Amino acid sequence: MKSSVVSISSNIAEGAGRKGTKEFCHFLSIAYGSACEVETQLIISKNLEFIQKKSV
């Protein structure tokens, strides 16, 4: 989960450093995918009672 969280901001930063809008959008898409991974991991963690609902 930690690597997915780091991936979000890293991909946004990398995309911002690119020259074209198309490249930036590509990295935003990757960041969005990582955000979806984190959301899924949080849901699974809650359902398996690794974390409490109020922690999410």
Automatic annotation (TrEMBL):
This is Four helix bundle protein. Signal peptide: none annotated. PANTHER family: FOUR HELIX BUNDLE PROTEIN. InterPro entries: 23S_rRNA-intervening_sequence (IPR012657), 23S_rRNA_IVS_sf (IPR036583). SUPFAM superfamilies: IVS-encoded protein-like (SSF158446).
